[in-house]
Amino acid sequence: MSFSYRIAPSTVHSIIISTCEAIWNKLSPTELPQPTEEEWKKKAEEFCSLWQFPNCIGAIDGKHIEIQAPNNSGSLFFNYKKTFSVVLLALVDANYKFTVIDVGGYGKSSDGGLFARSTLGKSLEANTLNIPNSKPPPKSEEPLPFVIVGDEAFPLKKYLLRPYPGVSARNDESKQIYNYRLSRARRVVENAFGILTQKFRLFYSRIQLSPENADKVVLAACVLHNYLRNDVSVEDCVIENTDAPSQFWHVIIIFVL
After folding, report:
1. How does pLDDT run across 138-190, given as a tens digit for each residue?
2. What's the predicted TM-score (pTM) here?
3. Cα–Cα distance measured from residue 257 to residue 191, given in angstroms and rounded to the nearest whole number
């Protein structure tokens, strides 16, 4: 960009960082607000209708954002993939939108450890996120709490469900069905990370910024991701081709991503 616009690299750097800060400050109040009790209930209804997992308000996971090795950082940012990274910990709804994000965790940390130290984890433990009271799932009379779902890296809590270990579920059909349903609901967070990376191609390569500035870029990308997904639905749209002769009419399924 410095070569294209004939300006100094330091000027390009300051413009990019200040632009990311402006995007976050302007859009975060509308695109990443703290959900109300009614909004949590709506998210649970979407998970139930789209992914057949009742009383689920979100799927959580962490994504390593590769950065250049920070000066004098030792092994803090060195992760299991043998690269240096900061971690994006995200809670995602049924429509692939970020509900809560935590950016800047050290690459060496596990997802479970980052969750326990994050504002999200502490707020869930203290029950200060306006999450509704327990309610019976469909075709049941026993009230069950609203939960988030994660993979094996996260701890089992009353508000966080994880799969049964493979050994215990191997010969138990009910546990296998549960693992399948949980995995089906949990994969929305993986899909959201994939869409984010596909939209903002800088995540395919190493970000040549300090951890502090890389965090600002990631925050701006996440809030822009939510803004771009405002008018997009996961549900399939069915369009009938009325221009073709009646005997050749057919239905075209368009998967909106």
Report:
1. 888 899 999 999 999 999 999 999 999 888 888 889 999 999 999 999 999 99
2. 0.85
3. 10
DSSP secondary structure string, 45-70? HHHHHHH--TTEEEEEEEEEEEBPPP
DSSP 20: H
Amino acid, res. 140: S
Chain-centroid distance of CA 85 in Å reads: 17
Contacts of 38 (CB under 8 A, 6+ apart): none
Sign of the torsion formed by the C-alpha atoms of 126, 131, 132 and 138: negative
Residue 99: φ, ψ to 5°: -95, -45
What is the C-alpha separation between 155 and 146, in angstroms, rounded? Answer: 16
Q: What is the torsion angle, in degrees rounded to the nearest 10, for the CA atoms of residue 202, residue 206, residue 211 and residue 217?
A: 0
Could you tell me where the DSSP H helices lie in the chain? 2-5, 9-31, 37-51, 111-117, 119-126, 166-169, 173-199, 211-228
Q: Are 56 and 256 in contact (CB under 8 A)?
A: no
What is the CB neighbour count within 10 angstroms for residue 106?
18
